[in-house]
Design goal:
- The protein has 341 residues and is mainly α.
- The chain has 2 domains: 26-105, no CATH class; 170-332, no CATH class.
- It is 48% helix and 4% strand.
- It has helices at residues 26-29, 80-84, 91-105, 122-127, 132-154, 190-194, 198-229, 235-260, 270-298, 307-314, 324-332, and strands at residues 36-37, 44-45, 170-171, 180-181, 318-319, 322-323.
- The strands form 3 sheets. Strands 1-2 form a two-stranded antiparallel sheet.
- Strand 5 (318-319) and strand 6 form a beta hairpin.
- It starts with 25 loop residues before the first helix and ends in a 9-residue tail after the last helix.
- Residues 79-84 and 186-196 have low confidence and may be disordered.
Length: 341
């Protein structure tokens, strides 16, 4: 059969058109006072139909005789009441009633795409893309925020603000280390250390080289004091001399440690630093012997009775009556003076 509303092919017995959702069962549920029916299937026909909407049978006026209306006990509608009273029913009103009822039962299909609006509409103007000044303002605001954050992090007007390494000179002589330190060598990273200029590296090496000579002079003086007071001096003078020798030994050890941590200028001054370490070790061997001799000397109430034993410790580095470490230091000190490269 065909849908009377859209003309689509619909299976027989269907009460609703699957295309336009027209109620095909209306002809079976709506009583009318008079009308035309299909001679084949009995479907109610509207005026002017040439084809039965239910079975598709071709129709003509002669083939559609009037049929007696049965009282089915359904609600009264206009036209049906007139039929009961014997009045004539207007076929146009019946057709209009069917079409109005079918219209009310149709499913409304609306597009999700809004209709095109009038260009002069105020709503349309507000729905347009933002204007150029909005983009410019947004870009300037983003630059201001990002630029401000970058400046706050980098702080270019004070590059040393976030520098954590110690650069303030400090006098370390009271801690057993001679001289003044300008930086803590072990604290800074290797990248900062290697970035030092060759002039700065040379100056640090030369300063330690000069300090070695000063410590060697003080060590000679301590050795002379030992020879004078170790066996004949009172306990107070011997104790004081022993303390001086111990402090000097600590200074020499600290200097050797500092030399080992100096920047070699990417290998430029590696041989000079190795020579300074040797000079320092020779001084420390002499100082250790002197310190041990003083410790043994103070363990006796009358050290003169144990002079041979104490002398053996004090001169354990001697060969042929000469301190071998002092001889090596004196012979190589001038030859190993660092030169700027």
């Amino acid at each position: 059969m065909k849908c009377p509303n859209c003309g689509a092919d619909v299976p027989d017995g269907t009460f609703e058109c699957p295309c336009c959702h027209f109620q095909l069962g209306l002809t079976q549920r709506i009583p009318v006072a008079s009308g035309k029916w299909c001679p084949v299937c009995g479907a109610l026909l509207a005026d002017g139909m040439s084809v039965c909407p239910k079975c598709g049978t071709p129709l003509d006026d002669a083939a559609t005789p009037a049929r007696t209306v049965r009282d089915l006990g359904l609600p009264e509608i206009d036209g049906a009441q007139a039929s009961k009273t014997g009045e004539d029913v207007d076929p146009d009103s019946t057709s209009a009633l069917l079409q109005a009822y079918a219209k009310s039962r149709e499913a409304r299909i609306e597009s999700a795409i809004p209709a095109e609006q009038d260009p002069s509409s105020a709503v349309l103007r507000h729905d347009r893309m933002p204007r150029a000044r909005v983009f410019v303002f947004t870009a300037l605001l983003a630059i201001f925020v990002i630029g401000g954050a970058a400046l706050a992090i980098t702080h270019p007007w004070d590059p040393t603000l976030y520098k954590t390494s110690t650069t303030t000179p400090a006098d370390t002589s009271s801690a057993g280390f001679p001289g003044t330190l300008t930086t803590l060598t072990g604290q800074d990273s290797s990248s900062e250390t290697t970035s030092s200029s060759t002039d700065t590296v040379y100056e640090a090496i030369l300063a330690d080289y000069t300090t070695l000579s000063e410590l060697e002079t003080k060590l000679d003086a301590c050795v002379a004091t030992f020879d004078e007071t170790a066996y004949t001096g009172d306990l107070s003078s011997r104790t004081s001399a022993s303390s001086d020798a111990s402090a000097l030994s600590i200074k020499i050890s600290n200097l050797i440690s500092n030399i080992s941590q100096l920047d070699d200028g990417a290998g430029t001054y590696s041989s000079d630093l190795a020579n300074l370490v040797k000079l320092g070790n020779w001084l420390r061997n002499r100082a250790d012997a002197l310190t041990d001799a003083w410790a043994l000397d103070l363990s006796y109430d009358n050290p003169s009775e144990y002079q041979d034993e104490i002398e053996a410790v004090a001169k354990r580095n001697y060969a042929g009556g000469t301190d071998s470490f002092k001889k090596q230091f004196d012979e190589n000190y001038d030859a190993w003076k660092p030169t700027q490269k």
